[in-house]
Amino acid sequence: MPDYARLHETLAALIDGVPHPLPNLANASALLWESLEDLNWAGFYLLSPARPDLLVLGPFQGRTACIEIPVGRGVCGTAVAREASVVVPDVHAFPGHIACDSASESEIVVPIRKNGRIVGVLDLDSPKKNTFGEEDRAGLETFVRILADALPDDFPARLL
Ligand code: SME
Predict the structure, then answer these.
(1) Contact 78, 55 (CB under 8 A)
(2) In 9-158, where do the E strands start and end?
(3) Given 51, 86, 143, 151, which is the most exposed site by the fewest CB atoms within 10 A?
(4) Is domain 4-8+21-149 annotated with CATH 3.30.930.10?
């Protein structure tokens, strides 16, 4: 199991005093990528300020990915629609899963809230089934809370 307490401390130190959301998200995806095992994708989809029904690809690590995901579609859009994290032990058993990388076997998506409003999601994909459990959900929900505290109130309208 990853040391989430250490991961949270490292993230807090990494973004401390950085007023730029884009670099903070980019570094957060790199931190997850280098800290967690069995990942083939780690990154963010952000709610479009112009189209609040649409998630748009944000900073990530891994293979190139789909640019747009409508709210309510795929695991990412489902997490936004449900306003809750979604843990998928086997992506092939999740109706509507969007396969950006055919290597993905399991997935977790965690909504990011700023001032009570969902502004995007964190998405992690694994090439193994059953990679993510309750501890990961709790650890990653705290991770995105730390990140969201550093986001400006007008995020994602302002990224730099
Ligand atoms: N699998 C996601 C799409 C994004 S990629 O995994 C990077 C989904 O079903 O929403």
Answers:
(1) no
(2) 41-47, 54-62, 68-70, 86-88, 106-114, 117-126
(3) 51
(4) no
Residues 12/110/73/30 CA torsion (nearest 10 deg): 40
| In the block, residue with structure tokens 């705290």 | 142
In this predicted model, what pLDDT tens digit does every residue of 36-79 receive, in sequence order? 999 999 999 999 999 999 999 999 999 999 999 999 999 999 99
- In this structure, which residue's CA is closest to atom 4 in ligand 1? 100
CB 32 within 8 A of CB 42: yes
> Which ligand 1 atom sits nearest the alpha carbon of residue 65?
7
- Determine the Cα–Cα distance for residues 135 and 126; give it in Å rounded to an integer: 16
pLDDT tens-place string over residues 83-92: 999 999 999 9
Residue with the nearest Cα to atom 1 of ligand 1?
A: 98
